[in-house]
Design a protein that fits this description.
Elements lengths: L1 E2 L3 E2 L3 E5 L9 E5 L4 H15 L4 E4 L8 H10 L2 E4 L9 H13 L12 H14 L18 H7 L13 H4 L2 E6 L5 E4 L2 E4 L8 E6 L9 E5 L2 E8 L2 H4 L38
Parallel strand pairs: 5-6
Antiparallel strand pairs: 1-2, 3-4, 7-10, 8-9, 9-12, 10-11, 11-12
Length: 276
């Protein structure tokens, strides 16, 4: 498909379908089919139609990422992978893809492919305005001659949404580990971030949104505790920064040693980190 500047680029349609009602919680075209493209679509599906009890996905490497497993575990969703070379269980979503090709892609206008956003707006207008409101005859056995939206309305009481205090943006953040260099920096996706000098030599967990602007701060965690927000290093200002003094001390896992002499009172220095 030609997007934007008319350069031909391959697009991938990522979609979720409710097995009982054939409603599409969410779907979107993306320029790749990796985990970073899959998870934002999953998050929108949860926001719009609630939490599934089970998430049935393909057996490819993109769906076996540790991050997807972690997100599903936090949401309380059972992650199930299809068996290799077994098409059973994927019939409904494959039929929906076929419907998209026949009823949507053949009717796209030039304006619909000016950008990925425009293409996805057209996809969602068609999904909500036509697909969800159409009785699909023989394709949808078990819908009792109802449209997907009508069938969904009859089962709406059983839909569960995340708890009010659940921060989905935070829950869906990606996590990677990095070792803090001697100049108290870490590198992520070609960008250098400055962290506290107390973390030099330590392995930290960086939590970030891959779709966020490149200069946005990222979370730094150490031993499952939130430490700080790290910001990209400014090359010019970096020339004048002294990096040999930590602004905090890390909490030790071992208990503090007893004073050598009872009469001598030593002050124990203890740094605090904010809990996530």
């Amino acid at each position: 498909m030609r997007i934007g500047d008319r350069t031909k680029r391959k697009t991938y349609l990522i979609a979720f379908i409710d097995d009982a009602t054939r409603v599409i919680p969410y779907a979107a075209f993306a320029l790749s089919e990796n985990t970073r493209a899959f998870l934002p679509v999953f998050k929108q599906a949860v926001l719009r139609r609630g939490l599934p009890e089970r998430l049935y996905v393909d057996n490819g490497a993109n769906y076996r990422s540790q991050h997807l497993s972690l997100v599903c575990a936090k949401l309380g969703v059972a992650l199930i992978h299809a068996r290799p070379y077994r098409p059973q269980g994927k019939g409904k979503i494959e039929r929906w893809f076929k419907t998209v090709r026949a009823q949507l892609l053949t009717r796209l206008l030039d304006a619909d492919t000016q950008s990925l956003d425009a293409l996805n707006r057209r996809l969602w207008v068609w999904t909500e305005g036509e697909y969800h409101r159409t009785r699909h005859r023989w394709r949808h056995h078990g819908l009792d001659k109802l449209t997907p939206l009508e069938k969904w309305a009859k089962t709406g009481d059983s839909v569960k949404f995340p708890e009010p205090g659940c921060d989905l943006d935070d829950l869906f953040l990606f996590e990677l580990q990095r070792k803090v260099q001697k100049d108290r920096t870490v590198s992520l996706n070609g960008i250098v971030y400055e962290v506290d000098a107390a973390l030099v030599g330590e392995t930290v967990t960086l939590r970030f949104d891959p779709g966020a602007p490149p200069k946005r701060p990222i979370q730094v965690c150490h031993k499952n505790r939130f430490v700080e927000l790290a910001r990209p290093v400014e090359p010019y200002a970096n020339c004048f920064v002294k990096r040999n003094r930590p602004s905090r001390t890390l909490e030790s896992d071992a208990p503090a040693p007893e004073p050598a002499m009872p009469a001598l009172q030593l002050h124990q220095l203890s740094g605090k980190t904010q809990e996530d």
